[in-house]
Amino acid sequence: MIKQTNSISFTLPMPVIAMSKNKPFTTIPKPHYNLVFEPQTGTCIKVAPNIWRVCAPNKGPYTFTGTNTYLVGERELFIIDPGPDDKKHLKNLLQAIGGRKVLAILLTHTHKDHSGLAKKLKSATGAPLWFGGKHRLSRPKAPGEINLLHGACDWDLVPERTLEDGQSIAIDGVTLEVLATPGHCANHLCFGVKNSDYLFSGDHVMGWNSTLIATPDGSMGDYFTSLDRLGACDGRHYFPGHGAPIPNLGPDKNGLTYASELRTHRMMRNEQILECIKTGATSISDIVNQIYPDVGLKIKMAAAMTVQAHVEYLAEKKMLNIHQGLLGKKSFSLPQQSTIK
User: Fold this and answer.
1) Over the stretch 239-262, which tens digit does the pLDDT of each residue have?
2) Handedness of CA 177, 180, 185, 186 (dihedral sign)
3) Would you list the DSSP string of 255-298?
4) Cα(16)–Cα(28) distance, integer angstroms
5) Is the pLDDT of residue 9 over 60?
6) Which residue ranges make up each domain of the chain?
7) Which fold has domain 31-265?
């Protein structure tokens, strides 16, 4: 058992809205992020009846305090998101499993911080891999386009069973309902616990930050659709892939209301990007520099990927035009009829 860590607090940079020659850009209120979380890395923590969490030792700017691996069941288990390929984490998981039968290893998606340990855990337990199909892009790559997340994706991982939207899988008195939630990536799934308000939300909804959407791996349009689908589920208490649970504290403060905050934040970001273009921004770097002028390089890279996803979404909705220049360089303009309210 790894020694318990102290509470970890992260401070995320807020967008600093630059001043244009005419007026300041619209400021965007942030969702109510929970940036304080004690992961107790490596320790098996009971978080609900028949649900345990073991946090992997891979904290970072994109993973917060590390990837949360969940054990579901009692005498037999599902393992949700085995996490990164890390010897200590494998040892801690096997200790938490304690010789119990693992019926299947489930993945919310195939980014390596969630799936990197899958093959080794499969070898150690004999459990098959169940997830939403091989990793795939949300759209085809354009000529000359580079997928910046290529190295983070588990392209060769193949499921023994491909899980599909609406399926139910049961173990030891616990039934999980599969919900397809593409957006962060094309094969992303959430798992609801039947007859409860629990939902394993993966990277679709996390309490510590908004989700990275990077095309062509992910899709902002799919992400909005998947956020809207959460309302049809019973889940209101979310167990995310990183960070603390998002608890159900009542009808006005729960996982679903928080997801609604995230959606509103993203829609406001769309409006802000259109406003940037209206006041002279013609490229991704222009937009990022205006919205995030003082952040570090890693955060700025993530911001650029997300802004690109917003731009593609706005182009799909015919709210802006994308112009292809020399050497793949893109620029943007607003349609004649486009107005910003």
Assistant:
1) 999 999 999 999 999 999 999 999
2) positive
3) HHHHHHHHHHHHHHHHHHHHHHHHTT--SHHHHHHHHSTT--HH
4) 10
5) no
6) 31-265
7) Metallo-beta-lactamase; Chain A (3.60.15)
